[in-house]
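Give me the 3D structure for Lipoprotein.
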Amino acid sequence: MLRYLVLFFFLIFCSHCSSAKISNNCDVNSDSFLNQLLFRIVVKDKSYHCGYKVAPAACTLSYEETHLPENWRQVKQEVEAQFALGSSEGETLTQYNPATVLSATGAAGTAFQGALAAPNGKVYLLPYNSPKILAINPKTNNYEEATSVPGAIDFIGGTLGPSGIIYLSPHTNNTFYKFDTSNHTLTNITNITMSGAAYNGGVYAPNGKIYYVPSGESIIRYYDTNKGTIGSVATPVSGGIFANGVLTPEGKIYFIPHTATNIYILDTNTETVTQHPFSFGGAGNYISGIYTPNGRIYIIPHNVATLYYVDTHDKDTVVEAGTIPNVTASMFNGVVLAPNGKLYPIPFNYGKFISIDSVTSDIKMLMPNPGTSSYRGGAIGQGGQIYLSPHNANRFDLLDTKSNGSFCDPVRLSPYWNKF
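Predicted structure for Lipoprotein (420 residues):
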């Protein structure tokens, strides 16, 4: 910001010391045009001027701006530029801290489900049966107890909203909570009587609302971060449980079916809900989804072999993208997009880690999963490492994707990819 201000005032000074040019605000060679353009860059004014629009680079945005539709082109360009750098060598799995999950939390098993990166540089492991939220410092690979929470699957996942606040998704708890990562305080928002297993994760939308993903509840509830109120969408979903939600640059949220059969699509611009006609079969067949810069939503298998993606650039056509070999029950839980352009489904009961190329859909088998019911979700670190969320794995592990590139913080924290 300072260098822009210095440049701005320097150019104004020079313009007054040189021969005046045509005083036409829309003449690209005029002083007034250049001065106004520089001023717009400094103050991040994105309105049109003489048919031109200032488009700040993705890494100069705040993470709260990366999912605004008008910024998608820059975000896409930045992500694809990192993809083009590829990987240096084969991925590795590392136990980054020698402590056990049991010693850190007191939870003997099923400790966490989901992880989120925060603007303070830390990764937060979100509770399943753990009585604590843990904060991981990727610079030291040490952990700290961030706060205590109710147990017994009170929450499944959470959503990073504006100002570094994580909104926990109530599962068996009737209370909506928010967790401030800047000072590690947990605050009760409100209490609503709901069905059991109410929600699974959520999505931070461009309109400032946190939409909770329906599980036992059919009502799509939201927390409006601008107004500080809880509300709900008029049209409910039906048919069963949804595993998580995927945001697209058009401001739409695709709810990924688990025991439900079809994808439901919430247009957050109008808060209208539509049902995609394709049947994914229900029965826990699929568990997660993720958006890629080429307009695809990859649907991650849980109990079946077929990998699909939804092509949002081609009328939401569902495309069969590949087959997972050696199918087992409850294979994956969660998926992370890395700076090398690959997707990494997080293994739960599947015997190996795998990668999926986001352009070719090629599936590659990697190292063994060290256990069963091991992990549920993960979060990308600053260097392209994936900090895994231990479920029954009694250890703290990371998957190093060996990406040559890296995501700057605004992209790494973007609601498109930093999610449960």
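The helical segments are 2-17, 31-43, 72-83, 101-105, 409-412. Let me know if you want a second pass.
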